[in-house]
Amino acid sequence: MHYPNPPESTRPDTPPSREGPVVLQAFVARHRAFFLLLAVLVVQLLLISFQITRSNKVRLIQVWAVTVFDPFERALHGVVDASTTAWRTYRGLWTAQQQNQDLQIELVAARSRIQELAEQAAEAERLREVLEFKQRLPFLTVAAEVIAASPGESSKAIYIDKGSKAGLKTDLAVITPAGIVGKILAVFPYSSQVLLITDPASGAGCMLQQSRAQGILKGGPASLCEVQYVSNEETVEVADAVLTSGLDRIFPKGLPVGTVVRTQPGDVYQEIVVKPSAPLDRLETVLVVLRGDGRDMQALGKPQAP
Mind listing the pLDDT tens digit for each residue in 175-195? Predict the structure, then answer.
């Protein structure tokens, strides 16, 4: 049988060679006198440098030490300065970031406050206009806030925060300084439903300001109104103002209704389309006209007319 590696052919590992240290020791031993002389010269040179002083009374050893270590000291000083500058820059950036975040928060709060103050100013201006308009009216009114609107395209109505407890009843006119809004359709103890003039079921007596021609205001499509029963012989132009006529005994005479935006002759009567003057899609405060018999006026604190 053939063994690829016979046992007798295997040998123990050879110990690592120590020729390097031996050669170095032999070299030092042969030149021992030279190394001793070199050491003595270095020691004497150091002793002499300690004793010799230059013209500025600085020892030579100090000059050599400064010469040798000055580059290292400068390099170390540069590293320390760079590290200090980097740390100061980092701290400055971190502080600036924190201040920027604080300023952003203060800016958001300031903008919110400005918006709140602007809203309060707008509301105060709106209430001032309503109050001035209320004081100019020759009839008694009560102010109410719009609290809801009826959903749906077929019914156009709003809800106000005044009801029977405030003396309201059905068929009372609801107006604003800009123009008429509608009439009260249903009354509850603390709220009322108002049918807008743009609703097809609404109706109000009106007249054209220029020609004084009278008609009936009805709700039309696209949040507009129509003036019906104005004959083709009457002169009606776009941008003519439309006022209440007072013949419906709901809306007082002379209140603004809207302006004519389109007109064309019909078979017998003209087709007149009117845009309401009051902003019916963004109502906030309205006035309800209190009209009734003498007992109603006395109950509301208004003296009865003789």
Answer: 999 999 999 999 999 999 999
